[in-house]
Write a structure and sequence with these properties.
binds pyridoxal-5'-phosphate, alpha/beta, single chain
């Protein structure tokens, strides 16, 4: 029989609901806290910052399913379902008995999974009469996705882009500007948070934490303006579950069910998006799938971070989140080219790690680029440097299958393509990248500055 490589859902099979895993978790994540009162955040406090619909989703612990609004579903149809692909080429190169599948989110118009939540969040803002939105972006994928989504729903968008990326990744900036967004390098002189950091360290190249502070500050000071975040928070991951819900049906088309689900991890949105619909079967049907979140060894919050209430941003404007964290003052090493630089993990994932439902795995930088190259050469797609961490973790597991002579079905997320990240590949090819492991003392020092609440 001819082997099928690619599985696509007919339009009427695209999911109509997102999945909220919190409803099925025995131990609920700890609540976000108001940093002044140290009391759990109330809905009305969140709606000052985020749209009401997203604030409600953020705090909901009881409803497992949320309708995907019709206008969002219509826009999803232009690129969903994304393909589920059997990686025969990679399997052959590894000579592994494992069956390797990947969900290809790189086919979205902006090249990554980020659009799944950008469209939803822009839609809700528009519904609620918001005219302006602000956000931050690191490598630029989130900014690109939200720029397109803002335009689709007629919103004005200001993006604070981490300065080092603004300078090193000019094409992502042009993409955002082409979609009609305003892009500001962060730290900037246009906010109090930015001015303070520039005054203290004039050459600071920025971090996601700083860019979030600037975007939040501008949103709070602009009438009819909300702040929109692309990762970490529960409602963002909720929107991303469309990935896993599709993959569930597509794996059934392929006649398999994953023994392992693997995704790269920045703030957790593509990981949760692919994993949670499968983890639901571990929680409610007794399945035993293993879940691995692949992070860079230079930003190892899942494996070496401390579980602690911490801020989501550098200046301390956000609510306090219960998270595995390297400290909100963490700044990644300059040598690190692979994205996934955020200091903390979302509250759902942090709880799931404590409960042993999933594990983190650290990937050294060179291993991630070696994996990316092998994947490119065998499957014909240049992966995003972020996605390369998931590929590297998959390759490790497939090699184990070969050594142990066991067949496993492995599913990983190709969260995006790397066609606009060729500077990072150039650095790798020129031999300019090295491995970098974050020293324990730095983690200890960063975290020792946090207020101890748990
Ligand atoms: C943003 C991004 C990530 C990391 O963010 P998560 O919220 O952890 O998914 C990973 N891959 C790609 C392609 C991205 O754009």
């Amino acid at each position: 029989m001819e082997k099928q490589k690619r599985f696509i859902l007919p339009e009427n099979e695209i999911p109509t609901q997102w999945y909220n895993i919190v409803a099925d978790m025995k131990n609920k994540p700890l609540p976000m806290l108001n940093p002044q009162t140290k009391q759990p955040i109330k809905l009305e406090e969140l709606t000052g910052l985020f749209s009401r619909a997203c604030s409600e989703q953020e705090l909901n612990q009881t409803d497992a399913w949320f309708e995907i609004p019709e206008q969002v579903r219509d826009l999803y149809k232009s690129y969903r379902s994304t393909p589920l692909v059997r990686a025969y080429g990679l399997e052959k190169a590894l000579d592994t008995p494992a069956h390797i599948y990947f969900k290809n989110e790189s086919v979205s118009p902006v090249g990554s999974h980020k659009l799944n939540s950008a469209l939803a969040q822009a839609y809700y803002c528009k519904q609620e009469g918001v005219t302006n939105i602000t956000t931050e972006t690191g490598a630029g994928q989130w900014g690109a996705a939200l720029s397109y989504a803002a335009k689709a729903f007629g919103l004005e968008l200001a993006v604070f882009m981490v300065k080092v990326s603004y300078n090193q990744k000019p094409y992502r900036r042009s993409i955002m500007q082409t979609f009609g967004a305003q892009v500001i390098a962060s730290p900037s002189m246009s906010t109090k948070a930015g001015r303070q950091i520039i005054t203290e360290s004039p050459n600071y190249q920025g971090s996601l934490g700083t860019a979030i502070s600037e975007a939040v500050e501008l949103a709070m000071q602009t009438p009819n303006c909300k702040y929109v975040l692309g990762s970490v928070l529960n409602h963002v991951t909720l929107h991303q579950t469309v990935i896993g819900l599709e993959a569930e049906k597509q794996m059934a088309m392929a006649g398999e069910y994953p023994d392992m689900v693997i995704a790269c991890f920045g703030g957790g949105s593509n990981f949760g998006g692919l994993s949670f619909p499968f983890m639901r079967h571990n929680l409610v049907d007794g399945k035993k799938t293993v879940f691995l979140a692949a992070e860079p060894a230079s930003c190892p919050k899942l494996t070496r971070g401390i579980f602690q209430y911490d801020f989501g941003d550098e200046a301390g404007y956000t609510p306090l989140l219960p998270m595995f964290t390297l400290g909100h003052n963490f700044a990644p090493a300059h040598i690190h080219a692979g994205g996934l630089r955020y200091h903390g993990a979302g509250s759902i994932v942090s709880q799931l790690i404590k409960d042993g439902m999933m594990k983190g795995v650290d990937i050294p930088q060179l291993e991630s680029f070696q994996a990316a190259s092998l994947f490119a050469q065998t499957e014909g797609i240049i992966p995003a440097p972020e996605s390369a961490h998931a590929i590297a973790a998959t390759i490790r597991e497939a090699k184990k299958c070969k050594e142990e002579g066991v067949k496993k079905t492995i599913l990983f997320n190709l969260s995006g393509h790397g066609l606009i990240d060729m500077t990072a590949y150039d650095q790798y090819l020129a031999g300019d990248l090295t491995n970098y492991e974050l020293p324990d003392e730095i983690i200890k020092e960063n975290v020792s500055k946090l207020d101890k609440i748990v």
